[in-house]
Write a structure and sequence with these properties.
The chain is mainly beta. It is built from 1 helix and 4 strands; from the N terminus they run ββββα. It has a 4-stranded antiparallel sheet with strand order 3-2-1-4, with no helix packed on it. The two termini are 16 Å apart.
């Protein structure tokens, strides 16, 4: 039996407030570090909102 490490934070990206993603810190040399969905959802200019909600994105749950 394998256990998955829980995400340190969860949130939504862009206008989709129903899909909650596991957020990971993404480092960019020219920008400040920011949290981004582990599955890569969203565009670079989308806003990420952190929530105290359970992750429900199927792609994030598979990671």
């Amino acid at each position: 039996m394998t256990t998955k490490k829980p995400a340190s934070s969860a949130g939504t990206v862009g206008d989709d407030i129903l899909t909650v993603h596991a957020l990971v810190k993404r480092h960019q040399p020219d920008l400040a570090s920011r949290y981004w969905p582990a599955c890569g959802a969203g565009k670079d200019d989308d806003r990420v909102f952190e929530w105290l909600r359970r992750v429900n994105c199927p792609d994030c749950l598979d990671i």
